[in-house]
Every structure is written in C-alpha cells, then in structure tokens.
Design brief:
Layout (H helix, E strand, L loop, with lengths): L9 H13 L5 E5 L6 H13 L3 H4 L7 H8 L5 E4 L10 H11 L9 E5 L7 H12 L5 E7 L7 H4 L3 E4 L5 H10 L4 H10 L4 H10 L5 H9 L4 H9 L11 H24 L8 H19 L4 H18 L4
Parallel strand pairs: 1-4, 1-5, 2-3, 3-4
Helix pairs in contact: 1-2, 5-6, 8-9, 9-10, 12-15, 13-14, 14-15
C-alpha cells in the first residue's frame, strides 16, 4: 500500500510526507474525518513508511525491502494494530494491556515501532487511561497513529500530544469512479455515489442493501397515508441486506443508513422547493427528529422503536408537503 493509490486526500498525505522527509516524526497523529474516506489506508501506508529504512528519500515505503515485505504481510514485529475484535462493539481493555506489554519490549527489528489505533472512538475511558502513559512517554522510536470519525472522541490528554490531520469527504465523482473501477454497473454507481455523501463505506452499504434501487419504495413509504407503526414496519423491510454482517452491529449500521437516506430525501423535499424557498420550519423539525433517531440507534435502542419515534414526527410534515 502506497500513498499514490489513495484518492482525494492530498493535503493530509502532504503533511505526512513532510514528517517522513524530515524524519521528525511526532509521537502521535490523529487522522480524523468521515468513515470510508481513506483514513485507514493512509494510516497503514504511513506506518509502513515509518518502518521502511529508505522512506525519508521517497516519503513512502519502497515496497521491496525486507521491512516492507514483512509489513505488507502483517508479520513485521514493529507494526502493531489495536482494533476491536469481530463481534465486539468496543476495543477491550485486555487488548490495550497486551499492546502496552509489547511496547515495553525493545524493537525486534530496526529502531522504529508504528502503532495504529483503528476507530479510536471504540476505546472507552478506561482503555484510553491504560494507553495514556505509553502516549505521554512513548518508547524510543514509537509512533502512534489514531484514526477516528471525530477528533473530540480522543481525550484532551492525548490530543494535546498529537498532530491532528483532517480528512475530508470524497468528491462524488471520486466515489463514482472507484465504484466503476470495482465493476459496479453505471446506474447503480451513479445512485450510490449521489447518496453516499463522500463515504465509500456508505456507498458499499447502500449497494449491499439495494437502497440505490429502492429509493422509490422508500419515498412511497414516507408519502403514504399510513401511520408511524405501519410505516416503520415497511422501513424494516428494507433492512434485509444483500450482503454484510447479520449481527446486532450490522443491523444498527443498516438502520442508520436508512435514516441517513431519509435525511437526504428530506433535504431534497423541503429545501429544494419549486419556488426556491422550501419549508424551513418543517425541514428543521424533520432534520432534528432524524438526528435524534441516529443518536438513539447508537445508544442501542431497538430499531423498530427508533423508526416509530422518528416517523411519528416526520410523517405529518412530510405528507402535507406537495410532491415535487
């Protein structure tokens, strides 16, 4: 993995290349931004470059030396990754303790260690506290790279010791091109890139759920005269994935995707009016209701309860708005 294969994040990559060129690496970096925009790929490319002996001249891993071959295979002893285990919603404290124990040992190869903490918002307060000493007083040659949706999810004690690098949503055309290159049919790629709001993660879920093809069904549910309970049951029928995880976390992600898609449709319905003005009061009310629903899903409230609550607020305003 090199930086050259990562699209539309040139400002972030430029800052990391500068660190590699100067060989004045910070003890920690925080890569923050929306899901599915390349943070994880950049973190891995940066970590491999840190471990490559000749990266200062090239500002990335050479890909051919022994260190690069081992880091690409995931067997380099200096490349440590902390992430939640499959089926877990959080990074476990035991995983943090295992990582810090590894850091207490001298590097088995070279003089550098790169630690990637993926989805740092998955660490709870106890986990961050267990990691803090290693970030405050890192072993010689150790560099931490945190990826997160929200920089504020990382405690100030760690943020203050880190260089922050922001990632932006991908341009719609970049998402479309990536999907087309992956063999997605053009009409589906166009629809998914329109809905994804710059996130490849969202584009993948939209395609897996078939939402790009089922927008008409979703709009019919919202525009119908049915009550919130019946409408929520109809939305629940869209949760069946064409692919993806079937566990509780996968269900929550798909439910979030449906509500985000409803939010996109609400923006179109209320803010792009024929007279150019839109119904701002109804729009704001609906947006806030959907935002509360997304928060409640993240608090693990039952999906059907969340859907009924959101639709109970959204449907009366949706249905009084003339169709466009």
């Amino acid at each position: 993995m090199s930086f050259d294969g990562i699209r539309s994040q040139e400002p972030a990559i430029r800052l990391l290349r500068q660190s590699l060129r100067s060989r004045r690496l910070a003890s920690a970096y925080i890569l923050s931004g929306p899901e599915g925009v390349g943070k994880g790929l950049v973190a891995l490319a940066f970590a491999r470059a840190i471990l490559c002996p000749g990266s200062a001249e090239r500002t990335e891993a050479c890909g051919s030396c022994g260190a690069c071959i081992r880091s690409a295979a995931g067997t380099h002893p200096g490349l440590l990754v902390l992430e939640r285990a499959a089926g877990r919603t959080e990074i476990l404290l035991a995983q943090v303790h295992e990582l810090t124990a590894s850091l207490s040992l001298r590097p088995a190869e070279g003089d550098r260690t790169a630690v990637i903490v993926r989805d740092a918002e998955r660490l709870n307060e106890e986990g961050f506290n267990a990691l803090l000493k290693s970030v405050e007083e890192p072993p010689p040659g150790a560099t931490f790279v945190f990826t997160t949706l929200n920089r504020e999810a990382v405690p100030e004690t760690i943020r203050s010791r880190s260089q922050h690098i922001r990632f932006r949503p991908l341009p719609r055309e970049s998402v479309r091109e990536i999907l087309l290159a992956a063999g997605v049919e053009e009409a589906r790629a166009n629809a998914a890139s329109e809905l994804a709001e710059g996130s490849m993660g969202r584009a993948t879920r939209i395609l897996g759920m078939g939402l790009a093809e089922r927008l008409g069904d979703l709009e019919k549910v919202l525009a119908s005269e049915r009550d919130a309970v019946a409408a929520a049951a109809a939305l629940g029928g869209l949760l069946t994935p064409g692919g993806g995880r079937h566990d509780r976390e996968g269900l929550r992600e798909r439910a979030e995707e449906i509500l985000r898609t409803v939010l996109g449709l609400a923006r179109r319905r209320f803010l792009v009016a024929p007279d150019g003005r839109g119904e701002l009061d109804d729009a704001g009310f609906c947006f806030r209701a959907i935002a509360r629903g997304l928060d409640n899903l993240r608090l693990n409230l039952p999906v059907d309860v969340v859907f009924v609550s959101v639709l109970g607020e959204v449907l009366p305003r949706w249905q009084k708005r003339p169709s466009m």
